[in-house]
Structure formats: structure tokens, C-alpha cells
Amino acid sequence: MADSKLSCFFLGLGVGTAVGLLFAPKPGGELMGDLRDRASEGRNFLWHRSGELRHQAEEILERGRSSVAAQREQLAAALEAGRRAYQEAASEETEMGDSS
Fold first, then answer.
1. Does residue 87 register a pLDDT over 90?
2. Residues of 35-71 as b/e, b for ≥16 C-beta within 10 angstroms?
3. DSSP structural state of residue 25
4. 99 band by pLDDT with thresholds 50, 70 and 90
5. Angstrom distances, CA of residue 90 to CA of 48, 60, 81, 94, 96
6. Following DSSP, what letter does each residue of 28-86 receive, concatenated?
7. Which of 18, 26, 80, 84 could form a disulfide with 30 if both were Cys (CB 3.0 to 4.6 A apart)?
8. Quick one: pLDDT at residue 76?
9. What is the number of other CB atoms lying within 10 angstroms of the CB of residue 14?
10. CB under 8 Å to 25, separation ≥6 — which residues?
């Protein structure tokens, strides 16, 4: 029984190899060259795409920094306006208190 399974395995292996060689699209060396070319194209694509993504990330980061700086300036201006209003109200109150 074990001999039968082993012989079927080798028969299948031989048939698979023969069919693979008969229907192979290209000879081994040529196929390996094509695979190398595809791998090189993939590397180049990833290199360029990563550069584009890095550039986009830098632009987004810069826009975020600009937005934060603008918000900070607006907040500082609002705080300054609030201080002035408080000081004016306090000085008016002091003047009114002195008048009484």
C-alpha cells in the first residue's frame, strides 16, 4: 500500500513536471530575466510613490502648522482685546467710583 502511494506520488510529480515544461511560457533564463525586470519596476514604483507620499505628508504638515499659527494669532488677538476691554471697564468703574 505504501509502495502504491509512493509510486503514484512520483508519477504525479513526473507528469506535473512534464506538463509544466511543455506549457511554460518562456525558457527559465528568460523567465528569470522577466521576473527581475518586474521586481525592478516594482521597486522603482514604490520608490517614486513613497517620495510622492512623503511630499504630500510634508504639505499636509505645513498646512497644519500654518493653521495652528493662524489660530494662535487669533487667540492672542482675542485675549489682548479681552484684556483691553477689562482694563477699560475697570478704569471706567474706578472713574465712576471717584465721581461719587
1. yes
2. eeeeeeeeeeeeeeeeeeeeeeeeeeeeeeeeeeeee
3. S
4. low
5. 63, 44, 14, 6, 10
6. HHHHHHHHHHHHHHHHHHHHHHHHHHHHHHHHHHHHHHHHHHHHHHHHHHHHHHHHHHH
7. 26
8. 96
9. 10
10. 31
Tell me which residue of 47, 67, 70 sits closest to 59, measured CA to CA. Answer: 67
Q: Which residues contact 50 (CB under 8 A, 6 or more apart)?
A: none
Per residue in 21-67, pLDDT (tens digit) is 667 777 777 877 887 888 899 899 999 999 999 999 999 999 999 99
| pLDDT for res 34 | 80
Supply the pTM of this predicted model: 0.48
CA-derived radius of gyration, the chain: 39
Identify the three-state secondary structure at position 95: helix
